Every structure is written in C-alpha cells, then in structure tokens.
Amino acid sequence: xxxxxxxxxxxxxxxxxxxxxxxxxxxxxxxxxxxxxxxxxxxxxxxxxxxxxxxxxxxxxxxxxxxxxxxxxxxxxxxxxxxxxxxxxxxxxxxxxxxxxxxxxxxxxxxxxxxxxxxxxxxxxxxxxxxxxxxxxxxxxxxxxxxxxxxxxxxxxxxxxxxxxxxxxxxxxxxxxxxxxxxxxxxxxxxxxxxxxxxxxxxxxxxxxxxxxxxxxxxxxxxxxxxxxxxxxxxxxxxxxxxxxxxxxxxxxxxxxxxxxxxxxxxxxxxxxxxxxxxxxxxxxxxxxxxxxxxxxxxxxxxxxxxxxxxxxxxx
Length: 316
Ligand SMILES: *[C@@H]1O[C@H](CO)[C@@H](O)[C@H](O)[C@H]1NC(C)=O
Ligand SMILES: *[C@@H]1O[C@H](CO)[C@@H](O)[C@H](O)[C@H]1NC(C)=O
Ligand SMILES: *[C@@H]1O[C@H](CO)[C@@H](O)[C@H](O)[C@H]1NC(C)=O
Ligand SMILES: *[C@@H]1O[C@H](CO)[C@@H](O)[C@H](O)[C@H]1NC(C)=O
Ligand SMILES: *[C@@H]1O[C@H](CO)[C@@H](O)[C@H](O)[C@H]1NC(C)=O
Known about the structure:
GO molecular function: hydrolase activity, acting on ester bonds
Order of helices and strands: HEHEHEHHEHEHEEEEHE
Keywords: Hydrolase, Signal
Organism: Cerrena zonata
Signal peptide: 1-18
Bound molecules: 2-acetamido-2-deoxy-beta-D-glucopyranose
Strand order of the largest sheet: 2-1-3-4-5-10
Radius of gyration: 20 Å
Distance between the termini: 31 Å
Protein name: Carbohydrate esterase family 16 protein
C-alpha cells in the first residue's frame, strides 16, 4: 500500500477526534468538591452520588471532597479543607506514599465546586478576600485540572454549578433557615446568584476549552450539571419517583426560623419521610436530595462509560 499524505492526514484526524475516554477504560473515580460530593459527611440526607456512581459503574472510589469546602481558602475562606490547599495536597500525599494506586489511563478525576465560593458567607454577602470575584474562583476550579495533570492525572470531568438561584436558600421567596437567619433581600440574592452561576459556568467552559490543548494526552470533559438540574425542574416526572406529589421547590427537611429570634431555633419544620422523599429535588435549603444524587450518579456514570453524551462535552 502506498502511504500518501492524505492517508496520513485521515489517520491523524481520526486519532484527533477520538475524544473522551473509551467505554471500558475507567476503573477508578477520584472525586473533589464540597458537601454535594462528600461521601462520608453526605449532604443529601442519605448516600452520596460518588458512592452510587462507584456501584453503578463498578469504579473504585477515592473520595477527597469535603463538606463546606470552597476552591481556595485564599480566595473564599471557609473553615474546611478547600480543594487547592486541602484536598489536592491530601490526594498527592496519598498517591506519593503509595497508599492509593491510581494508574493514569484507568483513573478519572471529577470536581464539583463553587456553591460555597459564591454563596452566603462568601461572594454573595461580601466575605471573600478583598478584590476576589467569580473570575478568581472559576480560574481556581479550572486550574485543578492543570495541577493534577502535572502530577500525572490524564482524565478529567468538570461538573459545573447547578442553578443555585433555584435552591430553597436562594429562591426569590426564600425564608430564614438554618444556613441564613439574618434579614436579606431574597429577590436581590436570587438575581445575583443567577448572574454569578451563569457567568462562572460560561467562563469555566471557555477556560477548560482553552486549557485543553496545553494538556497533551489528556481527556478533558465538562458535565453540565446546570442543564441536568434545569431539566429536572422542568420535567420532574422523568427523574423523581417518590410517593408524594413531585416537588422541585421545597425541601424534604425544611426548617423556618424567626428572623427576630433566630437563636431560639426553628419555629417549625416540615419533613418528608419514607418513599415520599424521592419526590423531592432538594434535601434541605442548600442540598440536592438523594434521588437527585442517584440521577447525578447515573448520568455521570453514563458520561464516563460513554453510554451518553447528553450532559457532557469532551474537549479532548
Ligand atoms: C469490577 O471491577 C473489579 C476491579 O476493577 C474487577 O476485578 C471486576 O471484574 C469488576 N466486576 C464487574 C462485574 O465488572
Ligand atoms: C494560599 O496562600 C498560601 C500562603 O500565602 C500559599 O502558600 C498557597 O500557595 C496559596 N494557595 C494557592 C492555591 O495559591
Ligand atoms: C430587593 O431587591 C429588588 C431587586 O433588586 C428590588 O427591586 C427591591 O426594591 C428590593 N427590596 C427592598 C425592600 O429593598
Ligand atoms: C412541596 O413541599 C412543601 C413542603 O413539604 C409543601 O409545602 C408544598 O406544598 C409542596 N409543593 C407541591 C407542589 O407539592
Ligand atoms: C427511585 O428510583 C431509584 C433509582 O434511581 C431507586 O433506587 C429508588 O428506590 C426509587 N424510589 C422509590 C420510592 O421507588
């Protein structure tokens, strides 16, 4: 056979468009993030999505996400192990000591961060480090891939932020709750949160796309959590399956405080139990429910195993 330039070109282009990991490539799942992802101190009142995903996909799970975390405590401080200063160093030290075995080809890394960076007690209410904006927190989240790449990691799936303006805490008609009892303009907060999340997610997409060519040999993907949660809100019947009326506005475990007497504890709580719980999108005023997390786990697993690219985009 005569090898022509065009044969070579076709071979090259063929290799270049093989984006994303192969369907049976990934065996290990390494997770970074906050309470949405923390596998031991779970945020959903049940089992966390990485534990479900490990079961659905037969992955070995290496969980590094920590409840309360932000991307960097230098930018948006929270008294928990942030991704940059706490979680990545913990991962690197366990990898270097041989405590964990994560061959690059068969290991994928995920990050789901931003809720605490943007939210109350940080950017939304002005407690971030001076001058810090959503540009800095987004840059930090995207840099996670570069930092891990430099330690040998090769497969990345970046989960963008959900529509946080729709969680009970940041809805226009939000009530004083366990996460925030002080008076605030709930309409203004909801509007601001919509701006922050949409700007952050759009920047993340562009920054990941720009980063990708600088990470040769890597697979870089974006999982669109914003689109998935928006679809759950519009079509709850496709995702929620409990025995109560489907509910995408209120929480399974909701507590209303008195804005004048917050230290007295909640004035009243409503709690859904048993099979009613799976009718709800939200566990409490901030967190997705366990059924929402089963959906996240299923969709992430399908993205990693390349059964579906419905919510994911592979840049390489
Ligand atoms: C699950 O993964 C383990 C470790 O990678 C492997 O030994 C086992 O065969 C897998 N099981 C199934 C059912 O695929
Ligand atoms: C955070 O600040 C500390 C102290 O200045 C510094 O050593 C560290 O590198 C910073 N972290 C990041 C991610 O820049
Ligand atoms: C709350 O914020 C909204 C949106 O910015 C504004 O229209 C409204 O006047 C504010 N309400 C109060 C009481 O300040
Ligand atoms: C959602 O749940 C809340 C709290 O249990 C309840 O007050 C509300 O009526 C429910 N909404 C729907 C549409 O069922
Ligand atoms: C809802 O579906 C999940 C699987 O996504 C299942 O584990 C759960 O038991 C179902 N809930 C109910 C109340 O049937």
